[in-house]
TrEMBL record:
Residues 6-48 form the S100/CaBP-9k-type calcium binding subdomain domain. It holds the Pfam family S_100. Gene3D superfamilies: EF-hand (1.10.238.10). This is S100 calcium binding protein, beta (neural). InterPro entries: EF-hand-dom_pair, S100/CaBP7/8-like_CS, S100_Ca-bd_sub.
Amino acid sequence: MTMTNLETSMATIIAVFQKYSEREGDKHKLKKSELKDLLHDELPDLMAHVKDQATLDSLMESLDTDGDAECDFQEFMTFISVVTVCCHEFFEHEDE
């Protein structure tokens, strides 16, 4: 059976998270270095607007809602959701 576009997108998000989270330590969480690699490799256009390390550190801190200095899948999905909503709003207003 062929997956729908949405199912494929969901599977891709999970696969990307796992690709980076499995590199070191807990395979269910992203360390700061893994998150940084993921963002640079998978969201290069977004990261082109991040000018300094302090901005990236601040992003990591805001994602880390449980304070364990790592980003679990739920925290990662919150970030992906917020970025997706922002992109949707941008393109929605671009048509006006």
